[in-house]
């Protein structure tokens, strides 16, 4: 070993090396394996440790990676928190929506007149005892409306009562009949003592059997001409100059045209089914048209211009001589006509002999 050392020294001197660091040798100093940390000089180990420490200190990558991981974790946490908040917000919104009571659109009544609505409400079972607005579907099936003396001014809304068969709205302030113009099932209509002038809207109501228009301001009855099923027509206390239209109503049983401006009764002459005829308070001067009305039970002719009762007396005499006896069931009211006393008393006595009840007052 000493010899080997000398050989190295000579080699160093030969090449002009001035410094040679000699490390402690060990039993494996000349082995092929590199020296372990224990075999390295202390200075070398210190230097190497210092270099590693510096290397670790100078390398920022691990710290940056740690910071990135922290940032990622923070972002992830923030996302989770945001998701939780959003979910909670949505849940609150859903809860609030569920808690809200739905606000239904305000339903408006189909009736412009409150008094008429009240009259109709009595026929609508579902709303009879509340104040909910009446709708078209509520009244689609009702068959009657009764509202007497209720200060009703408008029929608006009745057009929705498609199944209506009876109307009784007497003693109101109705003037316009157009809302009921298409109620083809109507059979009985009472509109007496209103403010009606025009009955044109009734012209197509051919199912009509009973029509009371008394106490209005009607001057034209012609719109009833198509009511071929009409049995009763009351048109007293209007402004009728004639009753020509009744000649087209062969099924009339009862006709009341009192307190008008009628002069001529000829339109009634063909009404063989007529049992009651009233024309009191007009200007009729002849009874000839009633001579053929052999089903009459009541004839009210007070306050006219009749001077001759012979047509009526002759009709009753003819009846008494036949198998058909209407006279015993007939009542005649003839007061207020310009009959002289003798004529009146003679006619009265003869009529009574046939069973007729005669009233002269």
UniProtKB/TrEMBL annotation:
<feature type="signal peptide">
    <location>
        <begin position="1"/>
        <end position="31"/>
    </location>
</feature>
<dbReference type="InterPro" id="IPR050836">
    <property type="entry name" value="SDS22/Internalin_LRR"/>
</dbReference>
<feature type="compositionally biased region" description="Basic and acidic residues">
    <location>
        <begin position="48"/>
        <end position="100"/>
    </location>
</feature>
<keyword id="KW-0433">Leucine-rich repeat</keyword>
<dbReference type="InterPro" id="IPR003591">
    <property type="entry name" value="Leu-rich_rpt_typical-subtyp"/>
</dbReference>
<feature type="region of interest" description="Disordered">
    <location>
        <begin position="27"/>
        <end position="100"/>
    </location>
</feature>
<keyword id="KW-0732">Signal</keyword>
<keyword id="KW-0677">Repeat</keyword>
<dbReference type="InterPro" id="IPR025875">
    <property type="entry name" value="Leu-rich_rpt_4"/>
</dbReference>
<dbReference type="InterPro" id="IPR001611">
    <property type="entry name" value="Leu-rich_rpt"/>
</dbReference>
<dbReference type="Pfam" id="PF12799">
    <property type="entry name" value="LRR_4"/>
</dbReference>
<dbReference type="InterPro" id="IPR032675">
    <property type="entry name" value="LRR_dom_sf"/>
</dbReference>
<protein>
    <submittedName>
        <fullName>Internalin-A</fullName>
    </submittedName>
</protein>
């Amino acid at each position: 070993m000493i010899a080997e050392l000398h050989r190295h020294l000579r080699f160093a001197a030969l090449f002009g090396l001035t410094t040679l660091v000699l490390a402690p040798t060990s039993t494996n100093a000349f082995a092929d394996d590199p020296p372990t940390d224990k075999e390295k000089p202390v200075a070398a180990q210190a230097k190497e440790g210092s270099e590693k420490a510096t290397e670790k200190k100078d390398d920022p990558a691990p710290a940056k990676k740690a910071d990135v991981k922290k940032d990622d974790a923070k972002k992830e946490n923030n996302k989770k928190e945001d998701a939780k908040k959003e979910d909670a917000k949505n849940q609150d919104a859903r809860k609030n929506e569920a808690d809200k009571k739905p606000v239904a659109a305000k339903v408006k009544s189909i009736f412009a007149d409150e008094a008429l609505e009240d009259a109709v409400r009595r026929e609508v079972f579902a709303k009879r005892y509340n104040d909910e607005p009446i709708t078209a579907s509520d009244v689609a099936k009702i068959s009657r409306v009764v509202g007497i003396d209720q200060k009703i001014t408008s029929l608006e809304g009745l057009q929705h009562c498609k199944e209506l068969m009876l109307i009784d709205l007497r003693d109101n302030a109705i003037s316009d009949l157009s809302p009921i113009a298409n109620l083809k099932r109507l059979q009985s209509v009472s509109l007496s003592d209103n403010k009606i002038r025009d009955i044109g809207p009734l012209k197509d109501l051919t199912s009509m059997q009973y029509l009371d228009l008394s106490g209005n301001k009607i001057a034209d009855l012609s719109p009833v001409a198509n009511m071929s099923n009409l049995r009763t027509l009351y048109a007293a206390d209007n402004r009728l100059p004639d009753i020509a239209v009744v000649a087209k109503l062969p099924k009339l049983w009862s006709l009341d045209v009192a307190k008008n401006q009628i002069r001529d009764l000829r339109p009634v002459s063909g009404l063989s089914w007529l049992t009651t005829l009233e024309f009191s308070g007009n200007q009729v001067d002849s009874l000839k048209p009633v001579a053929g009305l052999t089903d009459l039970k009541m004839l009210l002719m007070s306050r006219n211009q009749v001077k001759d009762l012979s047509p009526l007396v002759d009709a009753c005499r003819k009846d008494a001589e036949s198998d058909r006896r209407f006279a015993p069931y007939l009542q005649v009211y003839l007061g207020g006509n310009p009959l002289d006393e003798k004529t009146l008393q003679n006619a009265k006595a003869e009529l009574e002999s046939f069973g007729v009840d005669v009233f002269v007052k």
